[in-house]
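Protein modeling request. Please complete all fields; requests missing the sequence field cannot be processed.
Requester role: graduate student
Desired output: 3D structure, token encoding
Chains: 1
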Amino acid sequence: MKVIIPLAGFGTRLRPQTYTKPKPLINVAGKAVLGHILDKFAGLDVEEFIIVHGHLGEQIQHYLATQYPQYRARFVEQKELIGQADAILRCRPFVDGPVLIVFVDTLFEADLSGLAREKADAVIYVKEVQDPRRFGVAVVGAEGWITRFVEKPESMDNRLAVIGMYYLKDSDALMCACQELMERDIQTKGEYFLADAFNLMVEQGQKFRTETVEVWEDCGKPETVLHTNRYLLEHGHDNSAQHRDNGYLVVPPVHIAATAVIQNSVIGPYATISDGCHIVGSIIRDSIVDEDALIEDTTLDQSLIGKGALVKSSYRKLNVGDSSSVDFS
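Delivered output (329 residues):
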């Protein structure tokens, strides 16, 4: 099986972090988002990872080469961002047989070990959500097969949100559907969506089923990145035990890189501190601080601090009388 990971987008919802760093390399709980995804395939029989990149793609290549040299990776560039189906179609010369597609926004908990024995033509991973209107959803018929896909539905009737992970047994059929989609110029909101290609395959008789995941963490916006960071710190990525009695207070869960220098500070809960950071006299909670940042005399909460950034404040001395109100917001 080959794995396609499309990640060519600009990550505009995560700016300014993504002006100089591609979204898949945003650090959550001590590791790049892409690294967390690649870790899910440890021990599985993956022939090759095909990375569809665009903006700052050389950083993605460097990351794979240095952090995951054990994986065979191929890089395909998508210069014009006209949709998911176009990104997948660019991989056509390099795939045959079964393929798994994983979008880089998706951190998941799912058992992939049984895919080699799968009987359906396709498995679409989903999670039930309260409000499906900002997602793509799968509509399931009475016999249990998917009857169609709807991108950002207007109604609340179908709540099985598609999480961005798909297994297709016949990659050639997938590529033909993507090709037909583009030749017929079938677009949704100005883009060639993969869901529309799937609809063509369902219409042609392909049997698609859903597989529900219990955990689906999104890394597309600042607030969801911080939520994912909290989840990962609570589930196996807390290293607070390694940072006791170091002259600063740690409130778990946290992930603090070994090369970070911290003095007279309180770190946590839910803080990720990256390599080379220098933190002095500060309180940092529910935040991610990227490499080589300098934080002095500051309180941070629900914050993303970029690589090499300087955040410096000053404490205030007050003499506040009765019935007073002080607001520095």
